[in-house]
């Protein structure tokens, strides 16, 4: 299971260590590259092979795969509090640097899944729909065990039945390297995917705020 910082995005009182410590950030970034093929190295290049692999993995077209980026991932935190943390860290590393320019140029945010600063134009195998997180966590939703829910996915929209709702701690998604931070304000939800009205073997995790309740 990934080591998630257990902070509340609505109350970032202390900044995640990776935003302040270059070595920690680099180590966690390496882990994202190794475990979840974070990339591409230079998003401005075509990176055909990279996107083909992602498309195959997600069973979508290359064009669809290219729409699933850190910038719209539910693990991508760009609250003003978090951006301030990133800015402070950049200033500590290089006082001459215009930190805000660096943040804007890279469209940086914080990946809470792998605990590092990532760029909106990249992606990884653990991408999850519903991001970015740009403001305080939403109010508790009506999601409960047994609810049928839907959410935006790289291929359009997906549906499933809620099997578990966690309101505190970290939810590990079975057979995946992904885990989700749970809070009372925005629980982590384990969902069994349904296709054509039939349940599948696949379990996924989402934050409650990214789900639409179809039937309770
Ligand atoms: S989990 Fe999301 S935010 Fe983190 S690296 Fe992967 S795609 Fe980017």
Architecture overview:
- There is one protein chain.
- With 216 residues, the chain is of the alpha+beta class.
- It folds into two domains: 17-119, no CATH class; 148-215, no CATH class.
- 26% of the residues lie in helices and 26% in strands.
- It contains six helices and ten strands, in the order ααααβααβββββββββ.
- The strands form three sheets. Strands 9-8-5-4-10 form a five-stranded antiparallel sheet, with no helix packed on it. A three-stranded antiparallel sheet has the order 1-2-3. A two-stranded antiparallel sheet has the order 6-7.
- Strand 2 and strand 3 (116-119) form a beta hairpin.
- The longest helix has 15 residues, at 22-36.
- It is globular, with a radius of gyration of 17 Å.
- The two termini are 30 Å apart.
- The relative contact order is 0.17.
- The protein binds iron/sulfur cluster.
- Residues 32, 36, 38, 70, 73, 75-76, 111, 113-114, 118, 123-124, 126-127 line the site of iron/sulfur cluster.
């Amino acid at each position: 299971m990934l080591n998630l910082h257990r902070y509340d995005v609505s109350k970032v009182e202390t900044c995640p260590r990776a935003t302040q410590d270059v070595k920690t950030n680099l180590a966690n970034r390496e882990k994202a590259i190794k475990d979840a093929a974070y990339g591409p190295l230079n998003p401005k290049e075509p990176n055909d092979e990279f996107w083909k692999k992602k498309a195959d993995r997600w069973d979508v077209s290359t064009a669809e795969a290219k729409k699933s980026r850190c910038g719209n991932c539910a693990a991508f935190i760009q609250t003003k509090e978090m951006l301030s943390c990133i800015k402070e860290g950049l200033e500590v590393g290089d006082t001459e640097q215009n930190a805000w320019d660096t943040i804007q140029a890279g469209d940086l945010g914080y990946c809470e899944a792998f605990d590092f600063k990532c760029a909106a134009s990249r992606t990884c195998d653990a991408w999850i729909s519903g991001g970015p997180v740009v403001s305080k966590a939403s109010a508790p939703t009506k999601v409960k065990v047994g609810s049928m829910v839907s959410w935006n996915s790289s291929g359009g929209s997906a549906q499933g039945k809620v099997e578990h709702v966690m309101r505190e701690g970290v939810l590990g998604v079975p057979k995946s390297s992904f885990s989700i931070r749970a809070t009372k304000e925005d629980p982590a939800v384990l969902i069994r995917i349904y296709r054509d009205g039939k349940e599948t073997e696949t379990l996924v995790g989402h934050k409650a705020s990214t789900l639409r309740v179809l039937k309770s």
